[in-house]
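Shipment paperwork, digital attachment
Item: protein structure file
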Amino acid sequence: MANLIADSVRMTEEQWNQCKEMAKIMHLRSKNEFIRDAVDFYIEWCRRPYSQQFLTAALESVISAKIRESESRICRMLFKNAVEQNVSTRLAAWDYDLSDKQLDSLYRISVAEVKKNNGALDLEKYFELSEEEQASWQD
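Attachment content:
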């Protein structure tokens, strides 16, 4: 540990009490250790040209964790949707007694439609189209 120099610091009684309380909360050995950490933090803060750069580094792990959590939740939902879609497709195929050839043809048409619309389907817009334009979706 570096040589420590004792010098007087004047603070209100409330500030001293808050330092003592925070030292306990942060499991530090003393309020002096808390004050040294706080001063180091503030000096680093003041040296940064933009506080956003400092905050970005400080919050990066929290944000990354939230993103990973969201990705995981989305993946689980996509899996559930894929299972439900698979069940629906199988039921439709059985109900209409479709052959493998017909299913392949339907699959190719569906892929072409999704590519044509960039994956964004708006049923309201579809039903507002004329019959001719609706038929063009099936081409």
